[in-house]
Specification:
8-stranded mixed β-sheet, alpha/beta, D-Amino Acid Oxidase, Chain A, domain 2, 6-stranded mixed β-sheet, 418 residues, binds flavin-adenine dinucleotide, 11 helices, globular, FAD/NAD(P)-binding domain
């Protein structure tokens, strides 16, 4: 397979771009795999990649009901950061950002990681006090986040409004300079190509419709799919908003709810915004893509749903928040809107690890913030599937925490999730 490089680009350009290899195969499913991953999003594909790379497990299939990256991984607003409050979250997400920093080279795929920084503005004394507590806790956890005053916030983002009498004056904020954006499709394609290269079968248009279990032991024996039955003793489920449906097929319930989360892109503008800006009070965050469009998001729609559409009042709230934050965007036209279905636990932390069914492993509950978690999620989930023991970085995110009341309550610490 071609090694992607400047040299390969030039050579193929001179050849009329007719000789590029297919990036990954489209094999027919085999009757048996050592491990099957349901869900061809970032987490499923990263898991397959690390199973092959770190554990030598290559007789692995990723089953995707549509096309890879067609779920939340191809629908998100691409923000990668690690400014989490609890030590368990900080350790996990900071490791994920570190993996992202070397991922382009590891996958031989340009994932376009732009560490442009993220500024979360504060509009009141109360918010400044809250951010001070967050930043101190993050510093104790070794996460590099700083507080800045209003002047410095405006220097970092000169187009922020400057009205001190506004309902939402900008008094300061917290900044993570290592944060930024990553091209989401590239993460999917990079993991898919690298996993395929090591022998993983990526099977698209292959919805899982049932999960078979041994009547005596209850252990997983295989899955029923749109392309026939596939036997396996190790099943990893990474289907985001559809996790409760897969759990239902296996005969147990998950403490998760699925909601639509929307994203919006504007018409392209000349470069005006070279940092990610977020405001919890205004319920909006925004960055500018390489193509010039503003990419914005906000809070999830306020009711549970599997409908991948999103409602108009949430769209209006996000647009109003943007204009309150940066009034000069008031005449910018939105070009596109879409939604993904995200699954939340009530502490807003993921559920990753073992399940009540032997041989079935869970990777879900990422809510609106699991894109940044993909490399660490894949690495730790692969470890868990390969060894049947939860990786130390994810022990706190076990399903058992709801039984043991050991929540990692990021919901209390987070303002707006992205
Ligand atoms: C609008 C929006 C903005 C977001 N912004 C950010 C952000 O800025 N930063 C961030 O960190 N996170 C963000 N997120 C969250 C992030 O996108 C997700 O947490 C992450 O992509 C989840 O990855 P995944 O691989 O688990 O799920 P997905 O990418 O959704 O993949 C799951 C796959 O499973 C497949 N599937 C479902 N059921 C079946 C079945 N029965 N059989 C086979 N396949 C099945 C689906 O088709 C899908 O492709 C955002 C999400 C949305 C929707």
């Amino acid at each position: 397979m071609t090694h992607y490089s400047a040299f390969a680009l030039v050579r193929n350009a001179l050849g009329g771009n007719r000789h590029w290899d297919q990036a990954w195969r489209s094999p027919a499913p085999k009757p048996h795999y050592d491990a099957v991953i349901v869900g061809g999003g970032g987490h499923g594909l990263a898991t397959a990649y690390y199973l092959a790379k770190n554990h030598g497990l290559t007789n692995v299939a990723v089953l995707e009901k549509g096309w890879i990256g067609g779920g939340n991984t191809g629908r998100n607003t691409t923000i990668v950061r690690s400014d989490y409050y609890y030590p368990q979250s900080a350790a996990f997400f900071d490791h994920s950002v570190s993996l992202y920093e070397g991922l382009g080279r590891a996958l031989n795929f340009n994932i376009m990681f732009s560490q442009r920084g993220m500024l979360t503005v504060a509009h009141s004394r109360g918010e400044i006090d809250f951010q001070r507590r967050l930043v101190n806790a993050m510093a104790l956890n070794g996460v590099d986040v700083e507080l800045v005053g209003g002047g410095e916030a405006r220097r970092m983002c000169p187009i922020l409004h400057t009205d001190p009498d506004s309902r939402h004056p900008i008094l300061g904020g917290m900044v993570q300079r290592r944060a930024g954006t990553v091209r989401h499709d590239a993460v999917v394609w990079g993991f898919a190509r690298a996993a395929d290269r090591m022998g993983v079968d990526i099977i698209q248009n292959c919805a899982v419709t049932g999960i078979d279990r041994d009547p005596a032991t209850g252990a997983v024996t295989g899955v029923r799919t749109a392309q026939g039955r596939i036997a396996t003793g190790r099943l990893g489920v990474a289907v985001a908003g559809h996790s409760t449906m897969l759990a239902d097929m296996a005969g147990f319930r998950l403490p998760l709810r699925s909601y639509a989360l929307q994203a919006f892109v504007s018409e392209p503008l000349k470069p005006v915004l070279d940092i990610v800006v977020s405001s919890a009070a205004l319920g909006v965050y925004v960055s500018q893509s390489d193509k010039g469009g503003l990419v914005l998001g906000g809070n999830a729609d306020p009711y549970a749903s599997y409908a991948q559409r999103g409602n108009v009042p949430t769209m209006e709230a996000v647009a109003a928040g943007l204009v309150a934050l940066i009034p000069s965007f008031g005449r910018v036209k939105l070009l596109r809107q879409w939604a993904g279905i995200v699954d939340y636990a009530h502490d807003s932390s993921p559920v990753i690890g073992l399940s009540p069914v032997p041989g079935l492993f869970l990777n879900c509950g990422w809510g609106g913030g699991g894109f940044k978690a993909i490399p660490a999620g894949g690495e730790t989930f692969a470890h868990t599937i390969a060894t049947a023991e939860p990786h130390p970085l994810i022990r706190a995110f076990a399903l058992d925490r709801f039984r043991d009341m050991a929540l990692v309550d990021e919901a209390a610490a987070a303002g707006i999730e992205h």
